[in-house]
Amino acid sequence: MRRFVLIAPLTLLAVDAFADTLYRCQDAKGRAVFSDEPCGPSAEIVELEVHRPSAAQRREAQRRTAEAVAITDEIMRQRTRQRALAREAEIRFYQERQRQIEREKAERDAERSRTGSTRYIVRDLRPPSPPPSNGIKPPKPDRKDLKPPPKRPPKPRPPHPPRP
């Protein structure tokens, strides 16, 4: 964009350097070819009307170009500033994340130092429910002489009606 803004006014100023006369010829394939020099005996002269801007128009074009360059520069500065702010925010986010990880690790290490490096498995030896109120104690689960209750035979079903 900036390149275009700089080149556009220069092309307006360079219009004076172009020739006012062009020659039109046909090549071997019959296509029209334009040149600033005669390209053969069949060359036709094509007169061009070149608009030459006045000094006021050139100054106005230069002013607009300078204004466009200033706007482009301001936009580029804003983009650079936004990128820097985004980069700083990302860095702060990752630094805070790293600090959180380090705090959690320090807490785990402190817990390990308080309890020792070994872990203990603690089993709850209480029964899952309170004993019955009539004073009968539930059987101990590790006794081998206890057998599960016998299965009842299935109840007889009434016969199905015959199918048609």
From TrEMBL:
Endpoints of the signal sequence: 1-19
Record has Signal as a keyword: yes
Domain DUF4124: 10-63
Ranges where the record places region Disordered: 101-164
Ranges annotated as biased composition (Basic and acidic residues): 101-114, 139-148
Pfam families: DUF4124 (PF13511)
KW Repressor (keyword) present: no
Keyword line: Plasmid, Signal
InterPro entries in the cross-refs: DUF4124
Basic residues: bias regions: 149-164
Protein name, entry field: DUF4124 domain-containing protein
